[in-house]
Amino acid sequence: QKEVEQNSGPLSVPEGAIASLNCTYSDRGSQSFFWYRQYSGKSPELIMSIYSNGDKEDGRFTAQLNKASQYVSLLIRDSQPSDSATYLCAPYGDSSYKLIFGSGTRLLVRP
Amino acid sequence: SQTIHQWPATLVQPVGSPLSLECTVEGTSNPNLYWYRQAAGRGLQLLFYSVGIGQISSEVPQNLSASRPQDRQFILSSKKLLLSDSGFYLCAWLVRGWTEAFFGQGTRLTVV
User: Fold this and answer.
1) What is the pLDDT of residues A47-106, one digit of tens each?
2) Which of B32, B60, B74, B111 is the least buried, fewest Cβ under 10 Å from its Cβ?
3) How many whole angstroms separate alpha carbon A96 and alpha carbon B78?
4) In this complex, do A98 and B101 lie within 8 Å of one another by their Cβ atoms?
């Protein structure tokens, strides 16, 4: 089992729709969870982080965490063509100090 | 402010030549530091991480090594580059408290 799993996509949504990106992880000791956006040829940019079960909203983005199910997701509301990128998730815990990334989900927002 | 510097942005090196990539962080102390490699169209492969000066953990045995001579400096090295070392190398740091983690701009290495 991979440490962090994401559907590689591409996930294609029309402009204005909600994009839902999912991530599962294996380390139950994970305490912080990060979502990144990476455009082709660029370094990843931090979108948001979440530490507690439930939802966390930041503008058009909502992260959802369920530690019991070892599942974290990212919702993007009112998707824009500029949101087309690869989205990476990474859990972190001080049991290992590793910051392991999923392989990413490619999102395509159609105008 | 907290920033991360990584250089050079691009590098073309012949097979068998040495490598040294440097990453420095400003505006923080005792960060966790990470080196990743990303092959074209692939995910981020964790190469090394460090939780303190002189403390290096290796994830993948290979032709590379890392060092942390100062608290906010992380260096990736190779004595002899292989063609398979080509890729996009990224340095990242994790803020104390694990609230945020940021990447440098990356170094695109081509071994020819």
Assistant:
1) 999 999 999 999 999 999 999 999 999 999 999 999 999 999 999 988 889 999 999 999
2) B60
3) 25
4) no
